[in-house]
Amino acid sequence: TMTKIVIFMGYFGNVNHSFEMEIIPASKIVVQIGEMLVLTCNTTGCASPSFSWRTQMDHPLGGTVNNYRTYSTLTMNPVSIENYNDYLCTAFCNEKGKKEKSIKVELYSFPSDPVIEISTSLVAGEPATVICKIPDVFPSDRLEVLLMKEGHTLHAKDFSEDDSRNKETKTVTYSFNPTTEDIGKEITCVAKLPIANMDFEPKERVTSLKLNANFGPQNTIITVSPSNFTVEGNPLKLTCVTESNPPAQVVWSKHLADGNIEHFIENNVLSIPHARFTDSGLYICEVINLVTNKTEKATVDIFIQAPPKNTTLSIFPSSVVKQGESVTISCTSADVPAVQITLRKKIGDVITTLETEDGKYTIDKAQLKDAGIYECISINKLGKQGPWDLLVLYPSENVKEGENVTITCSTYSNPPSQMVLKKVHQEREIILPSVNGTFTLYNVTKNDTGKYLLDVFNEVGNNIKVIEIAVIGKSMYYLKLILFAPSNEFSDISQKYSIAIPVVAILIYMSRKAKINGSYSLVKALRLKV
């Protein structure tokens, strides 16, 4: 954009005055390089003057002269650095002599606002350089530059010792370590070019730039709502909070019990609508700033509380052992918080609580008195599971032919159950009578070897136990107990009507009181083919 300066003053007429002249503007003018300048040499008191223009030291004029009746102009369009000079105008009047006047033309160049540059992407805590450039400035020795942050001066520089005689771009640099607090604050470059008698704008130019320092991630934490201790079934929300610019990428993971790591979505919020006990564990939030190439991690332990689960009752090595052998009864429950395990022995209405170690109860030398039903109960503040029961059989050691065997069956059911004991032959089944659930085999022989089915039933369902008895010689005896659960059909009925199917406990006693040789006989036996 060219700015045109036209200064004109003339006098017309033949008024009889003394011969005078003037230069317009007066003795000095300051003009910006690239603009247009018109100098006017005007006379009075002379009808037909003549004019001449020259520079001090006879430099080229660098402009165009136009003479009119009583005045002359020198036009410089555009003004260049060569026009920095003193100009002399001489006016001649024949009978009145000559007049001379001079004017000093001073130049400057200050065409645009400063430009702020940053040498690299700002990273909090790492050195950076701010550069302020003032384009095409002249004269440089008048230039003053301030670098400021939020109104506070960071750096000041003047170019008073610069002797450049041409317009140039001047640069001011400042190095500093940005902090996270610098984000959003303004860096301002103020350039001033004060020239005497310069009564026009701009005398200074200003440019500002907001800092945007990259940093982080840092101060990374995980917040948990409602709490990292919560009850199974409740919603759970984990939020990863970090300070980072630009925003960090988030990756969730969880340490599994087997040492592996499970990865989740890349989002700062991890939601679990219905927490399960298996959601317990160590959660890790890893945040990554892809610009600064820095990472940070935060961890939190999540504990999902639940009532006892998967309570089981087992016996090792077997529920059938010989007297004198060691047996361990174990009650275990899923690893839920604060589970209390109770193991107890039940014979009839007599219940005895046993002292266990981690839910285990060991009998070093099993005796007949140790036979019975063992119950397991697991409980915590959220609920309980059990009792579960397990039948333990301990047959006598060294049962011989001719001895009596008593099988006693007790049931727990609603409505009350009936029971039948059958001896299975290849050709027929023999039903043995009972007295209050007790079956007695007298004077056992090898012929008593075989399968015996105990069927306990009510209108809801039934429970069958198969007993294998083998009588070998007069010195060896063993039995094997096989348990069969009722069919699904009966289980469904049981759940629907809340009626219990039979639960059977069997105790087998061997008696050596009767030792009659020969085959056995059943007391009041009733043999029926089924």
From TrEMBL:
> How does this protein sit in the membrane?
Single-pass type I membrane protein
> Which branch of life, at top level?
Eukaryota
Q: What Gene3D superfamilies does this protein's entry cite?
A: Immunoglobulins (2.60.40.10)
* A Pfam family assignment: I-set
Q: Which GO terms describe its cellular component?
A: plasma membrane
- Keyword terms, alphabetized: Cell adhesion, Cell membrane, Disulfide bond, Glycoprotein, Immunoglobulin domain, Membrane, Repeat, Signal, Transmembrane, Transmembrane helix
Q: What InterPro entries would the database entry show? A: ICAM_VCAM, ICAM_VCAM_N, Ig-like_dom, Ig-like_dom_sf, Ig-like_fold, Ig_C2-set, Ig_I-set, Ig_sub
Per the record, the major location class is membrane
Task: Write out the GO biological process terms.
Answer: cell-cell adhesion
Question: What name has this protein been given in UniProt?
Answer: Ig-like domain-containing protein
Which taxonomic lineage is given here? Eukaryota, Metazoa, Chordata, Craniata, Vertebrata
